[in-house]
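Researcher: Please translate sequence to structure tokens.
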Amino acid sequence: MTYEVMIADSPSTAKVRDPWTVAVLSVLTLGLYSLFWWYSINREMRDLGHARAADGLGERPEMAALAFSGLSVFTLYVALVWTIVTTTRRVRRAQRLSGQTASLNGWISAGLWIFTLGIGGLVYTQHELWTAHGTASSTVTAGEPGPTLHIEDPVEWPVEHPALWDPTTRRAYRKRYGKPPGA
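Model: Translation complete:
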């Protein structure tokens, strides 16, 4: 039950994933899917931050994924704990930014990460990220822009849009409309 939605006021998309599918795929792939998932949710929150010109949603999802990986053993797992804490804060910030109450509870999240060996933390974080809230709110269909993307003609897309110069957003725009303006 995975589908893409438009991030409001942006040409970028986010994936709404079934929380239990994230957990099952993470277990079946011995954690490899969870690393991909961690990068993806941090990238989606970064794109939301760029679209809304808001700080506090992260800038380097690859660093979050690196800290989430097995390489965190070299930092005595401090990097792993830190990326979980900061990503939890980003999810709460994304919830507030979308006009919702920040319902992701840090203490519940910490308990789930610790007492379920991470699986409960994956499920809870994914559930709270996009499925429980309307941060990214419209289904993408057959290359048509979703209703939250107010500019329908690529010629009308403003060159000075701050998200335009982000490589991920540029790829999403190119995929949807072709060559970005000013490129």
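Researcher: Any highlights?
Model: Residues 15-134 form one domain.
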